[in-house]
Amino acid sequence: MPKITALAIDTGGTFTDCVAFDEDGNLYSSKAHSTPPDLADGVLNSVANLAASLGLSAREVLEGAGLLLHGTTATVNTWLTRSGPTLGLITTKGHEDALLIGRVYQKVTGIGEWETTYAVKLKKADPIIPRPLIKGVAERIDYRGRVVVPLNLEEVRQAARELIAAGVQAIVVSLLWSFKNPSHEQQIKDVLQREFHEVRVSLSSELVPVLGEYERTATAAINAYLIPSTSRYFGTLKSKLQENGFRSDVLIMNNQGGCIPLQEATEKPIFTWSSGPVGGLLGARALAELLGYKQIVTTDVGGTSFDVGVAHEGDLVMAKSPSIGKYHIAIPMVDIASIGAGGGSIARVEPLTKSLEVGPRSAGARPGPACYALGGVKATVTDADVVLGRINPGLSLGGQIALDKERAISAIRDQVAKPLGMDVFEAAKAIVDIVDANMADLVRKVSIEKGFDPQDFVLFAFGGSGPTHAASYARDIGVNTVVIPALASVFSAFGIAMSDIVRWYVKSSPMMAPFSAEDLELIFGDLEVNAKTETSGNGLRVGSTEVIHFVEMKYRHQVNQLRLPVQHHKMNVGSLLDDFDAAYEDNFGPNTAYRQAGVELVTCGLIVTQRIRKPLLRVLDPKVGRRSREPKETREVFFGDRLLSTPIYDLGGLSSGVNVDGPAIIEGPGMAVVVPPNDRSFLDDYGNIVLQLAK
Amino acid sequence: MSTVSRREVVPFEILRNRLWAITNEAAAVLRVLSGSPVTSDARDFNTCLINAKGDGTLMGPYVASHGIGQPLVVQHIVREYQTNPGISEGDMFICSDPYVGPPHQNDVTIVAPVHWEGEVVAWFGATLHQVDVGGPVEGSQTAIGAESIYGEPLPMPPLKIIEGGLLRKDIEAECLIRSRTREAYALDMRAQIGCINAANKRIKDVIARYGVTMVKESLEQISEHTATLLKARLRELPDGVWHHTGYLDYEDTTKRLVYPCRVVMTKQGESLTFDYSQTASQAPAMINCTYSGLLSGVLMGVFTHLCFDIPWSPAGVLRVLKITSRPGTLVHAQWPAGASKGTTGAGWLVTQTAAVCLSKMLASDEKYRSHVMAGWCGNVPVLSLFGLDQRGEYFGGPLMDHVAGGGGAKSFEDGVDTAGYVRCLSISIGNAETQEVRYPLLYLFRRQERDTGGAGKWRGGAGIGVMFVPYDVERIDKAIVDTWSYNHPEAIGNSGGGPGASNQFVIARDSAVRKMLQEGVLPSSIAEVGGSHEVIPNFLITSLGRDDAFYTRVSGGGGYGDPLDREPEDVLADVVSGLVSKEAAADSYGVVMEEHGWRIDRSRTIELRSALKDKRRQEGRIVGSQMIREIAQATSSRTLSEYMSVVDGAVKCRCGRVLVYPTEDERDQLLVLDRPVGQISSLLAANPNDTPFMLREIFCPSCLTRLEAEVYLVGS
């Protein structure tokens, strides 16, 4: 009987995945349906399913587990259903509209490039705080943090009275330059807490002390909006876990590349926003470290979206200007690029020009592709995969029990093949080729923007349709090696299991060179105090702690900001400028450095990582319980321009080290790996499938 | 009609997406390498993929006029430079001559051929707005007082800046010597070169993979695809003739002139003609645009109003359009007319006037009425500052707040507040905090300005209102102002909606702002700050002292439908949100608020709305309706707008009243009211008591619905 030491659970839109590991480093996984709105049930069910597969009860697993890590979409649900509290905002008089003006580009934020040209449909955000609940008060601080107009506390009291009378449940305070001098925000907090204790107060300077009133205010407002429902959810989760015998710590996945204690996630739920896709990137990073890959690109192909992440020697690439809905926000967030391309992408023939478009519209999970037989009638990419024989209709793909091949054929025949005068195989192949090329375009865009040459990186493919399409889109961009992880179908949960506690602390402090070492020491000193309070106060059993100090700099009159690690205790402010010039040219090419304009330091920050115990991935024993490379069957699969008799392998039946040459299909839990003719693959020591693509 | 052959379906779709991706990625490279706020915030740059002949096949998603300018430069090179100096592999050409292609001298354009086995297969171009390209005035574009292009920055014809891969030092020196901001110029130029090199390599990868024939064919198919879809759209829309006149003023401290820009748009079957030949002759000033500005101006109207779901291929659209004009006019200037402000001047007005006609056409079709947008904000007011900052260092450039004009109202909802403009839909402005680091300023307010959105059943979007004082410096040496839509509104409503507010700049010299701040008071209007007030004419070069408060109001969008049709609750919501004043709620919308609290006084609202209609009847005069008969006779539609239908050749109001009979008839009548724009609202002109512009309102004599509201110049 294995003794489970830790659990990692990822709640997604459709499924809740659970990965567990035992004392010996063995990994186990299970799935359960997600159960909105009471997501905790799905979490418990996934544990129960896992326990059952091991012949245990959920209580036995939970009582023994020393740690539970969890990624959740709870915040996303609150946002999408707009079920947060009524918020009020107190801000600097004259700047009440900053959140509504949204730097003008709010109307095109968060939508695809192809949608920005649809002028009549462009709209700004449905305001998270309606204008009548935004109150300006007399006060002003300047760019150096000096008080220009003292805070008028009477106006603060008046504003609070009006907001509370209007039914506001929480008040966000965000004043100009508060990151530079938080005294006015603090005074407002004191007054509100003393005199109006019924409302919750959040300060922008406490959550995100960074330059830019729009993003800072939006971040504070969205965080406040997410707090009540997130805190209800985490409360329920914790008590249900405790009822079932769990007595240890719960860590929640964040969007900065790690996890944080549940209590912190309750206070700063914005840090858990959209953390699911980050899980996959962390999983790939862990494998890459083990396998010795330096540059990796991860591709997660779900039903509606294609997500791409990048890590360079273990460093995750962060987003340049992250957004939630139509709001730009000010927290550092791992960059996951996304387009509407996936198994559910709809194929359509433009009647006038007879061109074939695939996506970005999607049939989603419901009604889903025609072959799901759940009411969907549109021809989709998954239908094409079924028609081509790449997906076995009997395969349980993303939980569908069986796929209806006849429906897939008729959808593609009627909607694509007939209008184009093709046969149904040609039409299905055309759909797949086009969606694969679109995916390749995104991977190329992301990697080029990060300065990567596709030939230098290893591509990881997971998610329901990733293993089916990876060989094609990877070859298109010139990638040689593709890794399909053993746990591809629960890969985000695996990534969560491989994470550490990670927190970013940032503070803007715009200053022009020459910089003063003393000023920087002061700022870093403040950040370290914050970090110490948070990292030591929670009683968690953690391993070593690692702190990276960094600054963000730019040339004056320029906007490109670069993050530079610094040795803060013996900081040489002179060499900082040379380092910046060098880093700039590294990033943007020779002759781009522009020292004459002057150099500006914008932000100081810390990345604090506390190591936690992770599963030690075990090498598979090639001799135990596994047999050689015998296909379980052969099937007709369409490759190139014809059907080929293709061996079909069961992943569970392959031993490590075994080579499988294309054409072949390897079927595992919830996935079908396509190995095209002339490509080779092998099962590595850890049970991952490694595709070696022919040139 | 062109369709893709069966064999080509897949490669065409892949190449269409891939070439689009290459064009966009190159734009992203340009933006990152440049790093200048003009590129990053204002997005005043773009890339274009051009075929071997010089047709603009695809352009990036930024300022659309560059998608016209770059192909024109290529056409010039292909026509003139074939043998001398020749077009060879590894060459690039730089150009800033608006008479060749770029919209104005600041829009420095570089184009390069893409060679494959010795043959030019395509071209790729990159343009960005340089902060300064020389000339008498800082920032180059606002060449006040120049009577021809000789008083402006000297334009640069296409020069071979890169020859066989080598950056020519002599040509680079020729470019840089002009500029006050040489380092930035050099850097931006390298960004353009880097961007074109990246695109060139990617295009060659694609040729290597898919073959040169397929790529050439795809370039053709991309344009033809757009042309086919646009023609199909036109076939669905009613035939007809629509016209509109917009106005460009030229006023400095010495003179005041107004130049009408008239367009007649004729739609017949799948053809669409814009005739600008009745536009005023060219001005002896910088405000004209060249042929390039005319083409791109029309194109941007057509892109946003008809191609919302059609790929934006400039050449594809131009295949369908017919644009006629008279050389020597404001919108088709001839050498040596000035053109350094042709972008936000005449070129802008071309887009604005084309858009008005297109929206009228869309409004006359029941299916496409949902795609009507009343006029977006008029020509942008630009303020540039140059001088020494709080650290004693030289700074300079445009303050970007002015881009935040209001969007036009739609037929189903209000226009977007502080929306930007249709000529660049992804534009942005910096935070006030960022601006205060960049410039020696203290912002006193920055808000969605009350009563700037055009009144209507659906309100036009509000423009921005901004006030600042110089901060931490004794003075700002140069404040350079240019604007139009200044003494009249240019954002016209649709279907009886009112115009959005005009632009306005006001300086309060020697104001009491600093004293007020010391006393704990944050002023909320320029009226409160004292000092002597100067309402600025549309061009001015001045300086700002430390106590000079500067106020900018940016024009709002036009409204849609009769404001008396607006739901009182929507008016209340606007009042509560500070977008409409209580006075305007009553005067424009006939909605009365209770004295205390935020509630509608229903009975007084009903009374007031009825009184306002009576007033329309009393003050209006009955006139014949020749204009509407002409429109009705030209159209193939059963409706003219939300309120007017065409039945058996007669035009009927929604109330059933016949407004126009099929033949001239003495019973034909409309109720018309002409008033100076300043009388309607003090926000419709910068100097409401001194403007030569009128608003003509047209009502149904029976139900008194406002059917149209148009702006015109006295005496025209």
Please sum up the structure shown:
Chain A has 695 residues and is an alpha+beta fold.
Description:
The complex is a heterodimer of chains A (695) and B (716). Chain A is of the alpha+beta class and 695 residues long. Chain A has 18 helices and 33 strands. In chain A, helix 7 links the parallel strand 9 and strand 10. In chain A, helix 3 crosses helix 9, helix 11 packs across helix 16 and helix 12 crosses helix 13. The longest helix of chain A is centred in the first third of the chain and has 31 residues. Chain A is globular. In chain A, 55% of the residues are buried. Chain B is an alpha+beta fold and 716 residues long. Chain B is 30% helix and 24% strand. Chain B has 17 helices and 27 strands. In chain B, the strands form 6 sheets. Chain B has a 7-stranded antiparallel β-sheet with strand order 2-1-5-4-3-6-7. In chain B, helix 3 crosses helix 8 and helix 7 crosses helix 9. The radius of gyration of chain B is 26 Å and the shape is globular. Chain B starts with 8 loop residues before the first helix and ends with a strand. The model of chain B has no long low-confidence stretch (mean pLDDT 93). At the A-B interface, helix 4, helix 9, strand 20 and helix 14 of A face helix 1, helix 6, helix 7, helix 8 and helix 11 of B.
